[in-house]
Design brief:
- By secondary structure, the chain is of the alpha/beta class.
- It has one domain: Rossmann fold (3-Layer(aba) Sandwich), CATH 3.40.50.
- It is built from eleven helices and six strands.
- The chain has a six-stranded parallel sheet, with helices on both faces.
- β5, α9 and β6 form a beta-alpha-beta unit.
- The two termini are 20 Å apart.
- The relative contact order is 0.17.
Amino acid sequence: MTTPVVLFHGFIGTLDVIDLDGAHAAPDLLGYGAERAVPFDAISLPEQVEYVRAFIDERFGATQVDVVGHSVGGAIAMLLAHTHPRYVRKLVNVEGNFTLDDAFWSASVGRMSAVEADAMMDGFRQDPRAWLGAAIARPTEEMFETATRWLDFQPASTLRAMGQSVVTTTGHDGYLDVAAAVFESHPVYLIAGEHSRDGWNVPAWALARCAGYQTIAGCGHLMMLEDPEAFAASIRRCLREVDS
């Protein structure tokens, strides 16, 4: 039986992956989408870990799952595998946070006041083309439609809470020890965009110990928007590979 796949979206928006084999799910994290009413004080990376653990219990029962996490979702995937190791068979980390240098935007939003964050998001929603154009060189109309949906997916308060927790969690001296322990206990695959990989602060030991590393050509951090077919194919390769 194919192992179910659970996908964790990043700091903003969703993680929709086309054409995955078998059972899979992409839950809205706390503060996002259907969970957007969750209050500011109840949103943190540790709370997200317990939320997705309960989601896996409800959706898949005692079955182990493969997890895929993008950006902040990559950090949540790593924390899940460390806190609840029996739940995870293998892990695909898509430019997930390793150090505070990977959290430049989320950290800046975390430092904002509620008024400042609301104003920032209002500006993005009024001009999603400008927001997306800052990240993607040649965005298409379909990408703009997705950007509009992403910007409406969460309130600014969620981003402030997540930004603060990213700094607290990944900035802790023990976070890299947690990540290293996951690399020892689980197959961890790394995926990066060609244009953003040099800015991804992956430790040398992670590159040496990972089960596989793939780069998606012609893409940056939002590779699932720029080339969804190549992104899905890269994930499928990781999940299908037989680990030594």
